[in-house]
Amino acid sequence: MFKTIHVDEKLFYTEVRRRYYLLPGKAVPHRHVRSKRYITKVMMLAAVARPRWDPESGTYFDGKLSISPFVERKPAVPSSQRRPAETTVTTKGHVNK
């Protein structure tokens, strides 16, 4: 029971309009969306375990393993007006159960 890892998937809707609080000298993030009505979903996978003492390293394990999105970074095949071919593009990742 104490050595179990809890895995959870969450779906988040992205926002078209977002407010940013930036430090002085930082640029505003640039984001492209297809339209105002096109709201994409992002799936995140989280793995969490119970915090415990590790006698070998002499430290506490905080229990956080990872939180990662299901995306893939691939080179773009066709070119467009906004980017040349072979530019790295983030696309949706596929999950097989």
Task: Report a brief summary of the structure.
With about 100 residues, the protein is an all-beta fold.
Radius of gyration: 19 Å
Percent helix: under 10%
Give the amount of beta strand, in percent. 35-45%
Strand order of the largest sheet: 1-2-5
What structural class should be given to the helix and strand makeup? mainly beta
In terms of quaternary structure, the protein is single chain
Silhouette: elongated
What's the main sheet like? 3 strands, antiparallel
Distance between the termini: 24 Å
Overall residue-averaged pLDDT value: 75
The total count of strands amounts to 7
H/E series: EEEEEEE
List low-pLDDT spans. Answer: none
**Total count of helical runs of at least 4 residues:** 0
Describe the structure in your own words:
The chain has a domain of 66 residues. The model has no long low-confidence stretch (mean pLDDT 75). The protein is 0% helix and 41% strand. By secondary structure, the protein is an all-beta fold. The strands form 3 sheets. The chain has a 3-stranded antiparallel β-sheet with strand order 1-2-5, with no helix packed on it. The protein has a two-stranded antiparallel ribbon with strand order 3-4. A two-stranded antiparallel sheet has the order 6-7. A hairpin with a 4-residue loop joins strand 3 and strand 4. The protein has no helices and 7 strands.
